Amino acid sequence: MTMQASDTVIYKRKKYTLIDVEKGKQMIDCAEFPKSREICAFSSACWRGYIAEYRIRDGKLYGVRCEEKMGVETSLQSKEMFVNYTGSCVIAWNRDKDAWVNSDFLECYMDYDEALELHFTDGVLDEVRDLAEVIREQKEWKKKVEDGDEQAKIRLSLVGREELARRYLKYEYDESSYKWR
After folding, report:
1. At 46, is the pLDDT very low, low, confident or very high (cuts 50, 70, 90)?
2. Taking Cα atoms as reference points, which of 104, 86, 147 lies closest to residue 18?
3. Is residue 11's pLDDT more than 90?
4. 87, 18 Cβ separation under 8 angstroms
5. Closest-CA residue to 179 (of 40, 50, 88)
6. In terms of Cα–Cα distance, which of 127, 117, 85, 109 is closest to 19?
7. Angle separating helix axes 150-159 and 132-146, nearest 10 degrees
8. pLDDT, tens digit, for every residue of 98-141?
9. I want to staple 127 with a disulfide (CB 3.0 to 4.6 A). Which of 16, 24, 69, 119 is the partner?
10. Are 54 and 18 in contact (CB under 8 A)?
11. From the CB of residue 16, how many other CB atoms can be counted at a distance below 10 Å?
């Protein structure tokens, strides 16, 4: 399975990676973006055939749908549209823009420098939850395991990364990434 291209969310002048959206929901489907007549995946890393870039401006969610065609140098980009989304999402950001971090699994947000859980009602941002505490906790456990702490290794294997990641989230997320649903 190829890691999928990430959608992004621009929030407070930072470009975050969209990690996941609330169980049973899709953000891009909430807007009436013009779609190509054919779905054409431009690589195995983007089976949907498009990526989305979201922007939160004045507390409202907007989106742009971007498509690339095989053999075509330019990409197609929709007009920015208001996204009337009701639900949550997890976004994450790294200081090092060149750092590669897998974003296909919910628990991956703990490997970033910053992560937030956002909630929207009818496209309006109404809740922001900082996930700094779980990132800190996960880094502490990882360091203990790297230092050879057997108790930490046992505890981390019993709890598991996914369970630790979900423990700090308010909303429910599916077992697979939104990119695969």
Report:
1. low
2. 104
3. yes
4. no
5. 50
6. 109
7. 130
8. 777 778 788 999 999 999 999 999 999 999 999 999 999 888 88
9. 119
10. yes
11. 26
- What is the total residue count of the chain? 181
* CA contacts within 13 A on the Cβ side of 57: 9
| Spatial CA neighbour of 117 closest among 22, 12, 36, 1 | 22
Q: List, as own/partner pairs, every contact residues 177-181 make where C-beta atoms lie below 8 angstroms and the sequence separation is at least 24, other chains included.
A: 177/4, 177/19, 177/20, 177/103, 177/104, 177/105, 177/106, 178/18, 178/20, 178/21, 178/25, 178/26, 178/27, 179/4, 179/5, 179/6, 179/7, 179/48, 179/104, 180/4, 180/104, 181/26
Pick from 75-79, 87-91, 97-101: least confident: 75-79
Structure tokens at 146: 């790297």
Residue in this structure with the two tokens 């976004």, named with its chain if needed: 91
The whole-chain average pLDDT of the chain stands at 83
